[in-house]
Amino acid sequence: MPKMKTNKAAARRFKITGTGKVMRTQSGTRHINEWMSPSAKRNLRGFASVNEDVKEHVLSMFPYRKYLR
User: Of 63, 52, 53, 58, which Cα lies nearest the Cα of 15?
Assistant: First the structure.
């Protein structure tokens, strides 16, 4: 059997935490930010957790993840 491949597009977009949560980056930070207040831009920094509805779909793209949930 050949090795299973991780979906590289998903690997760039999502991170899996040690407890098995799937994290994503906040949207709305790429362009057209001139109108945004600095506090609004600050609030979009960092990561947010993925909705439970799509969590299983995202995890299916990571065949070698540590936690199989």
Answer: 58
